[in-house]
Protein backbone atom coordinates (compact mmCIF):
# COMPACT_ATOMS: atom_id res chain seq x y z
CA UNK A 1 0.00 0.00 0.00
CA UNK A 2 1.71 3.12 -1.26
CA UNK A 3 0.05 5.60 1.14
CA UNK A 4 -0.18 3.47 4.27
CA UNK A 5 -0.96 5.62 7.35
CA UNK A 6 -0.54 8.91 5.48
CA UNK A 7 -3.10 11.62 6.23
CA UNK A 8 -4.26 13.59 3.21
CA UNK A 9 -6.58 16.56 2.73
CA UNK A 10 -8.40 16.46 -0.62
CA UNK A 11 -10.40 19.59 -1.37
CA UNK A 12 -13.43 19.35 -3.60
CA UNK A 13 -13.71 15.64 -2.88
CA UNK A 14 -17.46 15.19 -2.49
CA UNK A 15 -17.66 14.45 -6.23
CA UNK A 16 -15.70 14.22 -9.48
CA UNK A 17 -11.93 14.07 -9.65
CA UNK A 18 -11.52 14.89 -5.95
CA UNK A 19 -13.82 12.06 -4.90
CA UNK A 20 -11.92 9.64 -7.13
CA UNK A 21 -8.59 10.77 -5.65
CA UNK A 22 -9.88 10.41 -2.09
CA UNK A 23 -11.20 6.91 -2.73
CA UNK A 24 -8.00 5.82 -4.47
CA UNK A 25 -5.86 7.28 -1.68
CA UNK A 26 -7.90 5.40 0.94
CA UNK A 27 -7.53 2.18 -1.04
CA UNK A 28 -3.76 2.73 -0.82
CA UNK A 29 -3.90 3.00 2.97
CA UNK A 30 -4.38 6.73 3.55
CA UNK A 31 -6.65 8.54 6.01
CA UNK A 32 -8.53 11.25 4.13
CA UNK A 33 -10.19 14.56 4.93
CA UNK A 34 -13.13 14.91 2.55
CA UNK A 35 -14.07 18.49 1.70
CA UNK A 36 -16.71 20.18 -0.42
CA UNK A 37 -20.00 22.05 -0.40
CA UNK A 38 -22.40 19.13 -0.85
CA UNK A 39 -22.96 17.64 2.61
CA UNK A 40 -25.10 14.73 1.43
CA UNK A 41 -22.54 13.66 -1.18
CA UNK A 42 -19.68 14.11 1.28
CA UNK A 43 -21.42 11.98 3.89
CA UNK A 44 -21.82 9.28 1.27
CA UNK A 45 -18.09 9.29 0.52
CA UNK A 46 -17.26 9.04 4.23
CA UNK A 47 -19.74 6.18 4.57
CA UNK A 48 -18.07 4.36 1.68
CA UNK A 49 -14.59 4.81 3.14
CA UNK A 50 -15.53 4.32 6.80
CA UNK A 51 -15.22 6.73 9.73
CA UNK A 52 -11.90 5.13 10.64
CA UNK A 53 -10.51 6.32 7.30
CA UNK A 54 -12.28 9.60 6.54
CA UNK A 55 -13.75 12.77 8.01
CA UNK A 56 -15.91 15.41 6.32
CA UNK A 57 -15.59 19.20 6.32
CA UNK A 58 -18.20 21.33 4.54
CA UNK A 59 -17.14 24.93 3.95
CA UNK A 60 -16.46 27.39 1.15
CA UNK A 61 -12.68 27.73 0.93
CA UNK A 62 -13.03 31.45 0.24
CA UNK A 63 -14.27 31.99 3.81
CA UNK A 64 -11.65 33.42 6.14
CA UNK A 65 -10.01 30.68 8.19
CA UNK A 66 -11.37 27.77 6.16
CA UNK A 67 -7.92 26.40 5.19
CA UNK A 68 -6.79 26.35 8.83
CA UNK A 69 -9.98 24.58 9.89
CA UNK A 70 -9.28 21.83 7.36
CA UNK A 71 -5.77 21.39 8.76
CA UNK A 72 -7.09 21.39 12.32
CA UNK A 73 -9.60 18.65 11.46
CA UNK A 74 -6.86 16.46 10.03
CA UNK A 75 -4.75 16.85 13.17
CA UNK A 76 -7.68 16.33 15.56
CA UNK A 77 -8.90 13.28 13.66
CA UNK A 78 -5.69 11.50 12.74
CA UNK A 79 -2.85 13.24 14.59
CA UNK A 80 -0.74 14.28 11.62
CA UNK A 81 -0.79 15.65 8.08
CA UNK A 82 1.25 14.28 5.19
CA UNK A 83 -0.24 15.70 2.01
CA UNK A 84 -2.61 18.27 0.56
CA UNK A 85 -4.45 17.84 -2.73
CA UNK A 86 -5.77 21.19 -3.97
CA UNK A 87 -8.56 20.06 -6.26
CA UNK A 88 -11.55 22.32 -5.44
CA UNK A 89 -12.29 24.84 -8.18
CA UNK A 90 -15.03 26.85 -9.80
CA UNK A 91 -15.40 26.15 -13.52
CA UNK A 92 -17.38 29.01 -15.02
CA UNK A 93 -17.62 30.38 -18.54
CA UNK A 94 -16.59 33.95 -19.32
CA UNK A 95 -14.86 35.97 -22.02
CA UNK A 96 -13.40 39.47 -22.26
CA UNK A 97 -16.91 40.94 -22.44
CA UNK A 98 -18.39 39.08 -19.47
CA UNK A 99 -15.41 39.00 -17.11
CA UNK A 100 -15.67 41.80 -14.58
CA UNK A 101 -13.58 42.35 -11.46
CA UNK A 102 -16.03 40.70 -9.08
CA UNK A 103 -16.31 37.57 -11.24
CA UNK A 104 -12.54 37.26 -11.64
CA UNK A 105 -12.00 37.80 -7.92
CA UNK A 106 -14.49 35.04 -7.09
CA UNK A 107 -12.69 32.50 -9.27
CA UNK A 108 -9.25 33.58 -8.07
CA UNK A 109 -10.31 33.30 -4.42
CA UNK A 110 -11.33 29.65 -4.77
CA UNK A 111 -9.09 28.44 -7.59
CA UNK A 112 -5.83 30.20 -6.67
CA UNK A 113 -5.84 31.96 -3.31
CA UNK A 114 -7.44 29.12 -1.34
CA UNK A 115 -4.83 26.54 -2.49
CA UNK A 116 -2.03 28.94 -1.54
CA UNK A 117 -3.39 29.57 1.94
CA UNK A 118 -4.14 25.89 2.52
CA UNK A 119 -0.50 25.12 1.73
CA UNK A 120 0.54 27.90 4.10
CA UNK A 121 -1.67 26.56 6.91
CA UNK A 122 -0.47 23.01 6.34
CA UNK A 123 3.22 23.84 5.92
CA UNK A 124 4.43 23.34 9.53
CA UNK A 125 2.96 19.84 9.52
CA UNK A 126 4.15 19.03 6.00
CA UNK A 127 7.66 20.02 7.07
CA UNK A 128 7.43 17.63 10.00
CA UNK A 129 6.24 14.75 7.81
CA UNK A 130 8.41 15.63 4.77
CA UNK A 131 5.12 15.76 2.96
CA UNK A 132 3.81 16.61 -0.47
CA UNK A 133 1.38 18.95 -2.16
CA UNK A 134 -0.45 18.04 -5.35
CA UNK A 135 -2.27 20.83 -7.15
CA UNK A 136 -4.95 19.87 -9.65
CA UNK A 137 -4.84 22.43 -12.43
CA UNK A 138 -6.16 22.28 -15.99
CA UNK A 139 -4.80 22.17 -19.50
CA UNK A 140 -6.58 25.52 -19.84
CA UNK A 141 -3.68 26.96 -17.84
CA UNK A 142 -1.66 27.06 -21.06
CA UNK A 143 -4.01 29.55 -22.72
CA UNK A 144 -7.56 28.30 -22.36
CA UNK A 145 -10.68 28.34 -24.46
CA UNK A 146 -12.05 31.68 -25.60
CA UNK A 147 -15.05 31.32 -23.27
CA UNK A 148 -13.05 30.24 -20.20
CA UNK A 149 -11.04 33.41 -19.72
CA UNK A 150 -11.27 33.93 -15.94
CA UNK A 151 -10.98 30.19 -15.24
CA UNK A 152 -7.90 29.94 -17.44
CA UNK A 153 -6.29 32.93 -15.71
CA UNK A 154 -6.82 31.27 -12.32
CA UNK A 155 -5.32 27.99 -13.52
CA UNK A 156 -2.36 29.72 -15.14
CA UNK A 157 -1.67 31.42 -11.82
CA UNK A 158 -1.72 28.17 -9.83
CA UNK A 159 0.68 26.59 -12.34
CA UNK A 160 3.18 29.39 -11.70
CA UNK A 161 2.61 28.98 -7.96
CA UNK A 162 3.35 25.26 -8.23
CA UNK A 163 6.67 25.87 -9.96
CA UNK A 164 7.63 28.61 -7.51
CA UNK A 165 6.75 26.69 -4.33
CA UNK A 166 7.97 23.42 -5.79
CA UNK A 167 11.42 24.94 -5.84
CA UNK A 168 11.43 27.10 -2.71
CA UNK A 169 9.62 24.72 -0.32
CA UNK A 170 11.61 21.70 -1.39
CA UNK A 171 14.97 23.48 -1.14
CA UNK A 172 14.22 24.94 2.29
CA UNK A 173 12.00 22.31 3.92
CA UNK A 174 11.97 19.16 1.81
CA UNK A 175 8.26 19.58 0.97
CA UNK A 176 7.46 18.57 -2.61
CA UNK A 177 4.92 20.54 -4.67
CA UNK A 178 3.76 19.19 -8.04
CA UNK A 179 0.77 19.61 -10.30
CA UNK A 180 -1.45 17.61 -12.65
CA UNK A 181 -3.27 19.39 -15.47
CA UNK A 182 -6.25 17.22 -16.43
CA UNK A 183 -7.74 17.48 -19.87
CA UNK A 184 -11.37 16.71 -20.62
CA UNK A 185 -12.69 14.53 -17.79
CA UNK A 186 -16.15 12.98 -17.46
CA UNK A 187 -17.27 14.30 -14.08
CA UNK A 188 -20.75 14.83 -12.70
CA UNK A 189 -20.28 18.58 -13.15
CA UNK A 190 -19.29 18.15 -16.79
CA UNK A 191 -22.43 16.13 -17.46
CA UNK A 192 -24.46 18.84 -15.70
CA UNK A 193 -22.84 21.62 -17.76
CA UNK A 194 -23.57 19.83 -21.01
CA UNK A 195 -27.17 19.26 -19.90
CA UNK A 196 -27.45 23.03 -19.36
CA UNK A 197 -26.22 23.46 -22.94
CA UNK A 198 -29.14 21.36 -24.14
CA UNK A 199 -27.26 18.12 -24.79
CA UNK A 200 -28.54 14.66 -23.89
CA UNK A 201 -26.88 12.87 -20.98
CA UNK A 202 -25.36 10.43 -23.49
CA UNK A 203 -23.41 13.17 -25.36
CA UNK A 204 -20.05 11.70 -24.36
CA UNK A 205 -20.70 8.37 -26.08
CA UNK A 206 -20.27 9.67 -29.62
CA UNK A 207 -17.41 12.16 -29.60
CA UNK A 208 -15.40 13.27 -32.58
CA UNK A 209 -11.78 12.10 -32.59
CA UNK A 210 -10.90 15.76 -33.04
CA UNK A 211 -11.67 16.14 -29.34
CA UNK A 212 -11.14 12.59 -28.09
CA UNK A 213 -8.71 10.53 -30.18
CA UNK A 214 -9.42 7.52 -27.96
CA UNK A 215 -13.11 7.72 -28.77
CA UNK A 216 -13.91 8.75 -25.19
CA UNK A 217 -12.79 11.31 -22.67
CA UNK A 218 -10.88 10.65 -19.43
CA UNK A 219 -12.47 9.04 -16.37
CA UNK A 220 -11.92 10.64 -12.93
CA UNK A 221 -10.42 7.33 -11.76
CA UNK A 222 -7.66 7.67 -14.35
CA UNK A 223 -6.65 11.05 -12.97
CA UNK A 224 -6.80 9.55 -9.47
CA UNK A 225 -4.52 6.67 -10.44
CA UNK A 226 -1.91 9.13 -11.69
CA UNK A 227 -2.25 11.27 -8.56
CA UNK A 228 -1.14 8.52 -6.21
CA UNK A 229 2.40 8.53 -7.63
CA UNK A 230 2.89 12.18 -6.65
CA UNK A 231 1.54 11.64 -3.14
CA UNK A 232 3.60 8.52 -2.51
CA UNK A 233 7.24 8.37 -1.49
CA UNK A 234 7.98 6.55 -4.76
CA UNK A 235 8.03 9.88 -6.61
CA UNK A 236 11.29 10.61 -4.81
CA UNK A 237 12.80 14.11 -4.84
CA UNK A 238 10.84 15.38 -7.86
CA UNK A 239 9.29 18.79 -7.20
CA UNK A 240 8.03 21.82 -9.08
CA UNK A 241 6.73 19.78 -12.00
CA UNK A 242 3.52 20.14 -14.01
CA UNK A 243 2.22 17.12 -15.90
CA UNK A 244 -0.54 17.35 -18.52
CA UNK A 245 -2.95 14.40 -18.56
CA UNK A 246 -4.67 14.68 -21.91
CA UNK A 247 -5.00 12.59 -25.07
CA UNK A 248 -2.92 14.94 -27.21
CA UNK A 249 -0.07 17.43 -26.72
CA UNK A 250 -1.22 20.90 -25.78
CA UNK A 251 1.80 22.41 -27.50
CA UNK A 252 2.42 21.39 -31.10
CA UNK A 253 -0.88 19.61 -31.67
CA UNK A 254 -1.86 19.11 -35.29
CA UNK A 255 -5.43 20.41 -35.36
CA UNK A 256 -7.48 18.96 -38.25
CA UNK A 257 -8.46 21.62 -40.78
CA UNK A 258 -12.16 20.96 -40.30
CA UNK A 259 -12.07 21.35 -36.53
CA UNK A 260 -14.24 23.90 -34.78
CA UNK A 261 -14.27 25.30 -31.27
CA UNK A 262 -12.91 22.88 -28.68
CA UNK A 263 -15.64 22.05 -26.13
CA UNK A 264 -15.42 22.91 -22.42
CA UNK A 265 -12.93 21.00 -20.32
From TrEMBL:
Pfam families: adh_short_C2. SUPFAM superfamilies: NAD(P)-binding Rossmann-fold domains (SSF51735). It comes from the Bacteria. InterPro entries: NAD(P)-bd_dom_sf (IPR036291), Sc_DH/Rdtase_CS (IPR020904), SDR_fam (IPR002347). PANTHER family: EG:BACR7A4.14 PROTEIN-RELATED, ZGC:101858. Belongs to the short-chain dehydrogenases/reductases (SDR) family. This is NAD(P)-dependent dehydrogenase (Short-subunit alcohol dehydrogenase family).
Amino acid sequence: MRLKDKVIIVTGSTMGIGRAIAKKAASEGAKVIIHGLEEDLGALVVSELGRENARLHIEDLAIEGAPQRLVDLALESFGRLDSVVNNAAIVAASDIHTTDKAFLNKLMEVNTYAPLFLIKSALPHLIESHGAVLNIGSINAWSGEHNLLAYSISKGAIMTMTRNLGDSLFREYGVRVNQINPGWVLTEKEIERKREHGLADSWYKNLSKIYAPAGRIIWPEEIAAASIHWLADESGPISGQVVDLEQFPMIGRNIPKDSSTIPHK
